[in-house]
């Protein structure tokens, strides 16, 4: 929430620049991956942490979108998404907005970028899984055109159900 932002920060969604990780200058990638790993460990339980150590830019069917604040001289990691192209579809494997920057439109902007990427790659749709209890994320996805497909009991862990949502893209 806006009240949770670092002191003196008034970041707005239009002050976040999104890029594909592999399109950034090579010298910046190690520090960005470091920031991704740190944010990932802060936000997700240990059993759900993505292995960014596996060099995601080398995987041609994977895209990592990163959102960096352009508010100061030092870019700050604000959001990211990991998507995998497979069989004519895009799997939104991971999406994260830093807790201090939620509820100001960054997640919506990131979803819009993901939809644009999927269309550019001629994907038929976008699939994702979300925790059943993650009401805010489910609302974001629904507002962005995703529809509930199924619920799987204990998908993430015992007592942590997952919901599959899909966004069909028009041809």
TrEMBL record:
Lineage, opening ranks: Eukaryota, Fungi, Dikarya, Ascomycota, Pezizomycotina
PANTHER family, per the entry: ACYL-COA N-ACYLTRANSFERASES (NAT) SUPERFAMILY PROTEIN
Name recorded for this polypeptide: N-acetyltransferase domain-containing protein
Signal peptide per UniProt: none
Species per Swiss-Prot/TrEMBL record: Exophiala xenobiotica
InterPro entries in UniProt: Acyl_CoA_acyltransferase, GNAT_dom
MF-aspect GO terms: acyltransferase activity, transferring groups other than amino-acyl groups
PROSITE patterns xrefs: GNAT (PS51186)
Residue ranges the record marks as coiled coil: none
Location of the N-acetyltransferase domain: 19-170
Origin: domain of life: Eukaryota
